[in-house]
Amino acid sequence: MQRSPHPLMLFLLLASVCGKHGLVGQPVDGGEDPKSADPRWGQMKSRNQSRPLLPTDFHKDTVTNEWIADGEEDEDYLDLEKIFGDDDDYIDIVDAVSPADPMASAGNVLQLFPGKSRIQRLNILNAKFAFNLYRALKEQASASDNIFLAPVGISTAMGMLCLGLRGETHKQVHAALHFTDFVNASSKYELGTIHNLFRKLTHRLFRRDFGYTLRAVNDLYVQRQFPILDDFRTKVRQYYFAEVQAADFADPAFLSETNHHVARLTKGLIKDTLQDIDPATQMMILNCIYFKGSWVNKFPVEMTHNHNFRLNEREVVKVPMMQTKGAFLAASDQELDCEILQLDYVGGVSMLVVVPHKLSGMKTLEAQLTPQVVEKWQKSMTNRTREVLLPKFKLEKDYNLVEALRSVGVTALFDRNSNLTGISDQRIAIDLVTPALCTFPALSPLPPQG
């Protein structure tokens, strides 16, 4: 007798703080016209500067606390020259592709692989997935909506889920995440290579003090008595530092405890992540990312004043506009008719601000965002001292990712016949009844100091 499938109410709760994508609008009548700006800017401040010490308990809530994988020394996570140098563990030759092969066209993201480390190559494909997901979310939004998301959290959660997918379900998710492109890039690569790189990436991003605060946690909650395969349990811990934890989703205490956990991790910036949860839920993946950094060129508080900010061709509002002057990297893209500014944080991370010369150019710009375009911008950037005005903003968004993931080719995952046999030996399926499925709550206050 065939058993009916268990409803696998899969929540991908991906919380992010202090990041920005797609801020709609432009400063006017008080800000500098980006089209008149000279992108060739002078010598940028050195990155070799003192970095503030973090509290001794900084890593207390970080899942990668004291994890050093077997066979890898602690210094491996500190030596950036080794990590991004010519070590055979990080640099591979991309297998030769015949020029006649359509995959060798200029639009193929694999053209960015030569000379890149494995982790850099993974980041390129994560970016490609991010831009595709961004466009899918934009299709669901109104013209005036802002889009805010942390793609690395979504990629990480989906990568973890991939460990339990099989057949067509696995194939579709791998293709959407562009993991298939990665495996096809070199005969040295296989499926396990991707998960191993996520482990390395997670460890390097969140383990050490690079001058900014970056925390993350992967929690995987499973309904008590629901059978999870030991192999899946072992691999999510091995590659994604996630512990499978028993939970009673029908117990109201689970909501409050989880919300308290997220609020504590994000210093109270994200509250009430879970409003409710279907008691029939069998598994929940919780992925949180918390980032806080200090600008290399700070925006003095006393320089923040109200300026006009254009929402569209007809509507202008007054907003607090931060202002500073310093050395910045920037570029001008004549083809996409936009200006690009890089705002650096202490520690070698940065925010890219892209402003079209015309409001009507935003749609064209969004449609053509690719890793190739971003790399072109970065290679063409020059330095000069300039004045920068940036609106203070706070974004809080809540997305249902199901339709967005369908738009990028993930359909079998949400079918009643989806193949998740790598998670449990019982027949399970993702249930679409709950509107909270695949929710992305995000919050971003952007203060003058960082």
From TrEMBL:
Residues 24-54 are annotated as: Disordered. Residues 1-25 form the signal peptide. InterPro entries: Serpin_dom, Serpin_fam, Serpin_sf, Serpin_sf_1, Serpin_sf_2. Pfam families: Serpin. Residues 131-445 form the Serpin domain. Keywords: Signal. One of its GO terms (molecular function) is serine-type endopeptidase inhibitor activity. The keyword Signal applies. GO terms for cellular component: extracellular space. The keyword Zinc-finger does not apply. Belongs to the serpin family. This is Heparin cofactor 2. It comes from Sus scrofa (Pig). The lineage of its organism: Eukaryota, Metazoa, Chordata, Craniata, Vertebrata.
